[in-house]
Design goal:
Structural class: alpha/beta
Helix content: 25-40%
Radius of gyration: 23 Å
Largest sheet: 8 strands, mixed
Oligomer: single chain
Number of strands: 17
Length: about 350
């Protein structure tokens, strides 16, 4: 069955080969390339495991900002007396706040699917594809070959090798969005922007929050003065332990015990919480895509190597966004996608 929209989880079409001018992997910023390619009349294949919209829409900047907004309002009300305003919060409906975040995401999915069904010269492959040979991918048993390929496969949460981590249910920036009830307490492992955003959110909701950060500073890539000021402000509403390495986690009755050690003093401590969230960095999805099967090289962290034109080590294959691990922000990925497309069209000029 061949149409403008393909849901291969429901198909069993064997070992056929479909050839395209352009293959785009990833439905986040890859949409910029799909739009441009279709406007030039190219035959396009769009591959994504779903859900539509990529990291930013589904588990990144959009849902996190939808949660930060009510958190900011709560803190403003709590601190309003400084301005001579006496205000009181009588109730916080955690589930309603979470549903408010999810609703526009669902609406965006529906809008994108309607666009897919009306597009010309576009086949959408819903499934986790991987390269099997030069310029050829397999998605749910079907083979796809492209003259030019653009990889925007994104990244996923990096889970550090902590003793016992495989034996507990931990949250990430993806699964935390599925919560229906507010946890009474949470330990967040990591101190980057994802950790800081969710720490702020949960603290505002009334959760007891502890951040365990390996580095000396929060958001360590920021200026030291910014990190220091951020820590000072956040410590008013939560516990922040920097220079702390997590050694082990284990489940005991109704709580999770996190055993850590101060890297300077060597002193060990145990923190207990109802939930634990891992926000210790990101990992490229290039390994899942098996890019080496098509001659695409990765660096020692697993991110795809690109040159100044965003072309990979394989001619006519470009990569952009979180998959290359440069500046992992949505607006950067959008611009990189546009640059990669223009370089492919104008042959690096």
């Amino acid at each position: 069955m061949k149409g403008l929209f393909r849901k291969f989880l429901e198909l069993n079409i064997g070992d056929s080969m479909n050839k395209y001018d352009i293959v785009v992997i990833g439905s986040g910023s890859g949409g910029e390339i799909v739009d441009a390619a279709l406007s030039h009349g190219f035959k396009v294949a769009w591959v994504d495991k779903g859900p539509l919209g990529g990291t930013c829409l589904n588990v990144g900047c959009i849902p996190s900002k939808m949660l930060i907004y009510p958190a900011d309002r709560i803190v403003e009300i709590q601190e309003a007396e400084k301005l001579g305003i006496k205000a009181k919060i009588t109730d916080i409906d955690f589930n309603a706040i979470m549903e408010r975040m999810r609703q526009p995401i669902r609406e965006s999915h529906e809008h994108m699917r309607r666009g897919l069904t009306s597009a010309q010269n576009l086949d959408y492959y819903e499934g986790e594809g991987h390269f099997i040979s030069n310029y050829t991918l397999e998605v749910n048993g079907e083979q796809i070959k492209g003259k030019k390929i653009f990889i925007g496969s994104g990244a996923r949460p990096l889970i550090p090798p902590i003793k016992g981590i495989e034996n507990i249910e931990y949250l990430t920036n993806e699964t935390v969005l599925d919560l229906k009830e507010r946890p009474k307490s949470i330990v967040i492992i990591g101190g980057g922007y994802i950790a800081v955003e969710f720490a702020h959110f949960f603290a505002a909701m009334g959760t007891e929050v502890t951040i365990l950060q390996r580095s000396p500073r929060l958001v360590k890539n920021s200026e030291p003065e910014i990190s220091d000021l951020l820590k000072k402000q956040m410590e008013k509403r939560m516990t922040i332990l920097t220079n702390t390495e997590v050694l082990e986690v284990k489940k005991q009755q109704n709580s999770i015990h996190i055993i850590g050690k101060n890297k300077h003093t060597g002193k060990e401590m145990t923190v207990m919480a109802e939930k634990i969230m891992i926000a210790a960095g990101r990992k490229s999805n290039a390994d899942l895509l098996k890019v080496k099967n098509t001659g695409v090289e990765t660096d020692d962290r697993g991110y795809i190597k690109v040159n100044e034109y965003l072309e990979t080590s394989k001619k006519n294959i470009w990569a952009f966004g979180d998959a290359i691990g440069k500046h992992m922000f949505k607006h950067v990925a959008n611009e990189e996608a546009i640059v990669a497309w223009r370089n492919s069209v104008h042959d690096h000029k």
